Amino acid sequence: MKQILSAIAIIVLIVSLVVISFTIQQANDEQKNLTLDLQHRSSTLADNLKTSIEPYSNGDSNDYLQTLVDKSADKERLIGLAVFDNKDNILAISSDLSKELTVSSQLFVATVMDSDNADGEFLSPKDSQKVYVFAVPLHTTDQTTGKESVSGSLLLMQNAGYIDTAVIEIWKNNMIRLLVQAILLAGAILLIIRWLIYQPIFNLVQAMRNARSGLENGKTKLGNHFFFQPLINEVTNISKSLTEARTIASQEARLRIQKLDSPWTSQRLKEFTKDVLKGRNIVVVSNREPYMHEKHGGRITYLQPASGMVTAIEPIMRACEGLWIAHGSGNADKLVVDKDDKVNVPPDEPKYTLKRVWLTKEEEKGYYEGFSNEGIWPLCHTAHTRPVFRKEDWEEYQKVNGKFAQTVLKEIKNMHKPIVLIQDYHFALLPRMIKNARPDAMVGIFWHIPWPHAEGFKICPWRKEILDGMLGADLIGFHTQLHCNNFIDTVGHELEALIDLETFAVQKGGHVSYIKPFPISIPFLEETSSLTDDDFDKKEFLKDMGISSEFVGVGVDRLDYTKGIPERLLGIEYFLDQYPQYKEKFTFIQIAAPSRTSISEYSQFGEKVEKEVERINNKFKIKHWKPILYIKKHHTHEEITKLYKAADVCLVTSLHDGMNLVAKEFIMARSDENGVLILSQFAGASGELKDAIIVNPYNTEQVGEAVRQSLEMMQSEKMKRMKKLRDIVKNYNVYRWSADLLKEMVNLE
Ligand code: F6P
């Protein structure tokens, strides 16, 4: 747009220069013509009057002269006239001129008499319009000598202001014309660019994008455009080829569904959902949106939030092309949605629709910061941070759950038996609200965080309402069997409900909810290809980060007190104390994505981590080396993948975690089958990833020893462990997770 505006500005500037030079010419000509005309009229009039006035210029008949002057003064644009004797005395003067006569006009008369030559001059008296004065000398002849001498002068004063007015008028008219022309020209250029260039290019891009993403199966109509016809033909052919290739891939994936040992891919999930859902729509609801649009310096960009839930659900939505409803929290989110608050995402390669729900500041504070993150989050994580439950937060939580319920119900209004997948602890009340209004909808809720033991859950004043809301779902999913057990136990303690421990089902008010573990995962297969080992130069990458150590450790977390970052740092301190030979040889990179910063527990926690980093660095630093590189900022998947590839060891030391996908992402990045994972026994992932070094993050010595063990592990041992870990994540990737969840839901009917 900037370039188009610059081009328009240049064209308008050129047109303006042309118009201005023509106007200068026109104004000069007009001024010249009017001046000549005025001079000519003045001299003709003076000559005519001179004949009748000259005989009386000796001062003998002043009354007659005055009558003559008065009579002659009545002419258009003539201010007046006056007759002077040769001593510069006024013999006769018209009444209007007597008011206007200035010293400079009188001086001019004297000059004319001295030179004995008629002359004219423009004068600009103060406070009055420009005038033109013209004077002719009058003569008398000596009767005796017959000699002619100057006896006086006739002065005419003409109004000359109209010449300037005419010139100004020319400028005014031409400038108005220029303005109108510039507006019309700019409009015409914009229209031409839009119709002839922008629209066809936009259609071409859209067609290519649709062809690439499989939307509309490459059938976008491109129409005929003279300029772009060859390009359009080419794009149409590419679209066709892509559609054919996709059809073949889809047929192959269908065949693979039959073969149980083949890997789960997005294509396989797509075919699977087609097969299982038979045209039923999938709607995902979460608080956190998969893409946030942000405005920085006038430019709108987007980012993917640091969220395990987003990491897991986004690839499924790409594969299933459903609708995702989430809170619009980016500062430019409103600028990119359509009238229904929807936007197609991923922004560069649209595959599914994101519908944004807007929340007020109060709602966000009460529902998100307060009840969800100061209440349920610490309650479920049992990480020794006191849960805070406030009545006003609970009210906002109920209100926002209701708001999302209304949005979901509106969206599924015309869907037949839709599948609604609710994500996380922000929406415990939503399943009941949806199920009550749409009993035909298949409702599932997946709880991405741990579920505490029944005694711990008693802290929540609204525990019964939360449980009842969740039990509106047909399927309630957790990451681990332990969390399912805790949930069933909690229901048994809190509600009147029928519990079937054989099928892990709860019957309440005639409705049955099944409770099942689904250990969430990551895409694995496809994403690894974005950065191959050949592309990656570890030394160069670390050098760019200012690291020259032989060994590198990495930690990647949201800045959250459940992630065990201070405990990890203590472990590193212990390691360096015990094994000082690693000083200057080992650097630990801690990436911390700022999170929930308006909650005081989080800002205090951020300060605590920073102080701890500083303390340990000051304790060990030698010349340019320091043991910990702390980077507090959001990173893209691509950047983090590089860090994982560069690390000898990755530390995941959560004090309590539903699953922890950082552990799985590290494994995915290690296509070189190298690197060691240190994993907390309190992260859900530890149940699957047995070949990591499993530690208790509260045991500083154990964490420190694990760091040493990982750095000194035999290469063959490292590779053996990493291979097994990769097999596990590859085999149970997020596509399989999603297929299991959907299959379970459909089978419940
Ligand atoms: O992974 C658990 C989770 O609560 C997600 O649901 C959430 O998106 C993520 O942590 C990050 O938290 P937030 O969305 O509050 O930034």
Note the overall shape.
elongated
Which CATH architecture of the largest domain is right?
3-Layer(aba) Sandwich
Give the mean pLDDT: 91
| N- and C-termini, Cα separation | 54 Å
**Bound molecule kinds, no repeats:** 6-O-phosphono-beta-D-fructofuranose
What is the CATH domain class of the largest domain? Alpha Beta
Structurally, how many domains make up the residues?
A: 3
Summary?
The mean pLDDT is 91. By secondary structure, the protein is α/β, with parallel strands linked by helices. The chain is built from 23 helices and 23 strands.
Polypeptide structure, described:
50% of the residues lie in helices and 17% in strands. It has 749 residues and is of the alpha/beta class. α19 (637-646) packs across α20 (661-669). The longest helix has 53 residues, at 161-213. 6-O-phosphono-beta-D-fructofuranose (F6P) binds at residues 288, 305, 307-309, 424, 448-449, 558, 595-596.
Please describe the topology of this protein:
Elements (H helix, E strand, L loop, with lengths): L1 H52 L8 H11 L5 E8 L4 E4 L1 H6 L2 H13 L3 E5 L7 E11 L6 E12 L1 H53 L15 H30 L7 H12 L4 E5 L5 E5 L2 E5 L4 H13 L2 E5 L5 H4 L5 E4 L6 E6 L3 H21 L9 H21 L7 E5 L6 H8 L4 E5 L7 H4 L5 H8 L4 E4 L2 H14 L3 E3 L4 E4 L2 E7 L20 H7 L6 E8 L6 H14 L7 E8 L6 H21 L7 E5 L4 H10 L2 E4 L8 H9 L6 E5 L12 E3 L4 H13 L2 H17 L2 H14 L2
Helix pairs in contact: 1-5, 5-6, 6-7, 7-8, 7-23, 10-11, 11-12, 17-18, 17-21, 19-20
The structure holds 6-O-phosphono-beta-D-fructofuranose (F6P).
